[in-house]
Amino acid sequence: MGELENRLLKHVDLLVERYPSLKSAKKDIIEAYLLLEECYENEGKLLVAGNGGSAADAEHIVGELMKGFKMPRKPEASFVEKLVAENQELGCVLAENLQGALPAIALDGHLALSTAYMNDCEPLLCFAQQVNGYGKTGDVFLGISTSGNSKNVLFAAITAHAKGMKVIGLTGAKDSKIRDISDVCIKAPQIETYMIQELHLPIYHCLCLMLEDKFFA
């Protein structure tokens, strides 16, 4: 894994250079990346959930994975040929503008489903219900919680493991329930919610950069 290791270190070392306090999380960031890499190499997907600002982070992560982040991610030649074969005019537009994507779904944004489930069933299980519906063996669930104890995220994490998925936690510095049930837990070394969130963004940007470098360089 020589070349990959160099790419890993390039992005993580730059992260730690810019945010020295994240040196304590370096090992866990790399381990989380490796889980995500394995997931995508095996045609899996990422499910992401959080509350409040962490819900916004979930949407942000999906945006970086489902389209070009730093790279244009041009479609493969074989796919371009299929698009043009389907329709010369529209296929050319598609071939020029579509970008490679790493499948990812934020679980906070499905209002009709979430409100129906919360009204009919158990509100704290709305993320777990979506993990139950979307998740399969080999997928990854990323639970974002500054406290690490958000109940709806914990229920989703338990469901993910039962589905054969891996679980990554993204939390603050304190020990937490999600740390105990995650395969990898990245702990931002702060205890104030807004300060934790300020470090979550460069952490997940780093993971997205690493994934893009791996699959689209």
Q: Kindly provide the radius of gyration, computed on alpha-carbon positions and rounded to a whole number of angstroms.
A: 18 Å
Structural class: alpha/beta
Q: What oligomeric state do these chains adopt?
A: single chain
**General form:** globular
Helices and strands, in order, run as HHEHHHEHHEHEHEH
Uncertain regions spanning at least 5 consecutive residues: none
| Number of E-state strands | 5
The biggest sheet, with number of strands, parallel, antiparallel or mixed sense and barrel status, is:
5 strands, parallel
Tags for this model:
217 residues, alpha/beta, 5-stranded parallel sheet, 10 helices, globular
Strand and helix layout:
Blueprint (H helix, E strand, L loop, with lengths): L1 H17 L7 H16 L4 E4 L3 H13 L11 H10 L1 H10 L6 E3 L4 H10 L5 H9 L5 E5 L6 H12 L3 E6 L5 H5 L2 E4 L5 H24 L1
Parallel strand pairs: 1-2, 1-3, 3-4, 4-5
